[in-house]
Structure formats: C-alpha cells, structure tokens
Amino acid sequence: MHENTLTQITNSQKQDTLYEVLEGLTRIPKELPCRLLYDERGSFLFEQICKLDEYYLTRTEMNIMRKNIDEITDVIGKNCSLIEFGSGNSKKTRLILDKIKKPIFYIPIDISLEYLIKSVKTLAKDYPQLKITPVHADYTQNLDL
C-alpha cells in the first residue's frame, strides 16, 4: 500500500472568496460560488440529490460508462494514470479501476477536502497497489499540477 500525499492548491482563493461572496450578494438573484457549497455536508447532500429519479445526469453517466467500459479501458490501456476532475466519491472511476489491467496512479481533484480524504481512504483500502495523489482544489480555476 502506498502512502497518499494530499496536495492543496489555493490560487490566492481566500482573497478571491470574499470578493466573490460580496459580488454575488449584490446580484439579482443573489448567488454564491458553488465551491462554497461543497463541504462534507454539501457533498453528502449532492450525492443524495444524484440518487433522485428527477436527477438523471449521474444515472445517465453511469449507464454510458457501463455500456462503453471495454472500449474506454482499451483506449486507456494498462499501467496508466487517471486524473479525475470533481472526483466526489470516485464511483465512476471505480468502474475503470475494476476493469483496467494495472492502473498505477490515480489523481482525484475535488473541492471538498473532507469528501476527498474519505474517498481516498476507501480507495486505498480497496486498491492497495494503486498510488493515489489527491488534490484539494477548485478545478474551475487555473491549476498548476
């Protein structure tokens, strides 16, 4: 099992956050950056929303992945590195990891630090040979990986 090192990328995010909140509260209708909603509770609530019949996007994505998993993993090949933007619970990536021959690296990128840590711990237990380098960042901003 590999030791997983968490990388945090902030891009002067704290200074920008105050500006974005103030700007969003002056808009009509008022709005906040969605990244502020994805703490552990927000990520959990989003996962619950994804299970609703009315929210078909996640279900559709999973069906597309299942239907095309052989073609996807053939293109990826073995001894690969996977990078996932907005990894959340890494459910879709598990389809690939279960099918691919020898994945070497997985880099999940997510805005929710708590959810990222929880997901990485579970993945490390389920895929002990996989080197996981989690990145806590807002991937809608520029990233220096």
Could you give the distance between the termini?
23 Å
For this structure, the CATH topology of the domain at 39-136 is Rossmann fold
- Got a strand count? 5
Average pLDDT taken over every residue: 85
Supply the number of helical segments. Answer: 5
Going by CATH, what is the homologous superfamily of the domain at 39-136?
Vaccinia Virus protein VP39
CATH class of the domain at 39-136: Alpha Beta
Strand share of the residues? 5-15%
**Regions with little confidence, pLDDT below 50 for 5+ residues:** none
Question: From the alpha-carbon coordinates, what is the Rg to the nearest angstrom?
Answer: 17 Å
Biggest sheet layout: 5 strands, parallel
Topology pattern, helix = H, strand = E: EHHHEHEHEE
Shape: globular
Please state the second-level CATH architecture of the domain at 39-136.
Answer: 3-Layer(aba) Sandwich
Would you give an account of this structure?
The chain has a domain at 39-136: Vaccinia Virus protein VP39 (Rossmann fold, 3-Layer(aba) Sandwich). It is built from five helices and five strands, in the order βαααβαβαββ. The protein has helices at 13-26, 40-50, 57-76, 91-99, 113-126, and strands at residues 7-8, 81-85, 105-110, 131-132, 135-136. Strands 1, 2, 3, 4 and 5 form a five-stranded parallel sheet that branches. The chain is globular.
Describe the structure in brief.
This protein has helices spanning 13-26, 40-50, 57-76, 91-99, 113-126; strands spanning 7-8, 81-85, 105-110, 131-132, 135-136.
